[in-house]
Specification:
Distance between the termini: 43 Å
Structural class: alpha/beta
Radius of gyration: 23 Å
Largest sheet: 8 strands, mixed
Shape: elongated
Strand order of the largest sheet: 3-2-1-4-5-6-7-8
Helix content: 40-55%
Number of helices: 11
Length: 289
């Protein structure tokens, strides 16, 4: 049976995201202990009712769930290694951005010290925590997830992907890869439009609607890739090679570098050279692995 949301929590790390998580727990009335390597970052949270811990050891001894929201994989070890003897029988949730292999390593390390481990990928910016639209993807200990799902959903919609501790971060980083590529395309387009006197803000309004419309094709593209049948294209690789070549020429004319678009041009050029020009654009997936 899931525990009620009076579960004590200890938040280790008070960057923007750590603060947002702690604030959401405090708003729900959970006993919340906070710690940060740099003193003084907990003042607002303590004023709101959190218990400020001077040391990691003190935060862990406060009891309840231990949630790490730190800079990276190394910082998780830097923080927890000195108090590893305190982790036996405890439940640890890592919401630090760690690569899949790093998440699996942390799960094995936690098990060696008698701690259950759940890894999470936060699909939200800090201002979205506790609001509709935020989600956190989890994998690792089903015991932690099942017992504390109500608590976790105070932060964001919670989805569990299984006991492979690296699976949630694989989803997380794959989604972020799509996001960053989209952002890169927007920056490139905004640079082109500035050359003709159009502001980035004005272009952003138009780009948002266009990109949203184009994302509707992603499930279809995924089905094409899974089937591996690229012989019936809507538009061929050769067509897209020509289109991207024109974009590159227009970009040079506008004084815009090709850092974001050149890698895709290279992928298309290679496929045409290798005799795949008549196949569907989705075949480009096969060049990536």
């Amino acid at each position: 049976m899931a525990e009620t949301t009076n579960t004590p929590v200890a938040i280790l790390g008070l960057g923007a995201m750590g603060k947002a998580l702690a604030a959401a727990f405090l708003k729900a009335g959970l006993p919340t202990t906070v710690w940060n390597r740099t003193p003084g970052k907990d003042a607002d949270l303590v004023a709101a009712g959190a218990a400020g811990a001077a040391t990691v050891d003190e935060a862990i001894r406060a009891g309840g769930l231990i949630i790490t929201v730190l800079l990276d994989h190394a910082s998780v070890h830097d923080t927890l290694d000195p108090v590893a003897h305190r982790l036996s029988g405890r439940q640890l949730i890592n919401l630090t951005s760690t690569a899949p292999g790093e998440a699996r390593e942390l799960a094995a390390w936690a098990a060696e010290h008698g701690s259950a481990f759940l890894d999470g990928g936060i699909m939200a910016v800090p201002s979205m925590i506790g609001q509709p639209g935020a989600s956190i993807l989890y994998s690792g200990s089903h015991e932690i997830f099942d017992a504390h799902r109500e608590t976790l959903e105070l932060l964001a919609a919670a989805e569990y992907f299984g006991d492979d501790a690296g699976l949630a971060s694989t989803y997380d980083f794959a989604l972020l890869a799509a996001m960053y590529a989209m952002f890169g395309g927007f920056l490139h387009g905004a640079a082109m439009m500035r050359s003709v006197g159009v502001s980035a803000a004005e272009f952003g309004e138009r780009a948002a609607a266009w990109v949203a419309a184009m994302t509707q094709s992603l499930p279809y593209q995924g089905r094409v890739i899974d089937a591996g049948n690229y012989a019936d294209p809507v538009q061929s690789i050769a067509f897209h090679k020509s289109a991207l070549g024109a974009i590159n020429r227009a970009s040079r004319d506008a004084g815009v570098t090709l850092d974001f678009v050149a890698p895709l041009q290279s992928l298309l050029d290679r496929q045409v050279t290798d005799g795949h020009g008549t196949l569907a654009f989705e075949r480009t997936f096969e060049e990536l692995h």
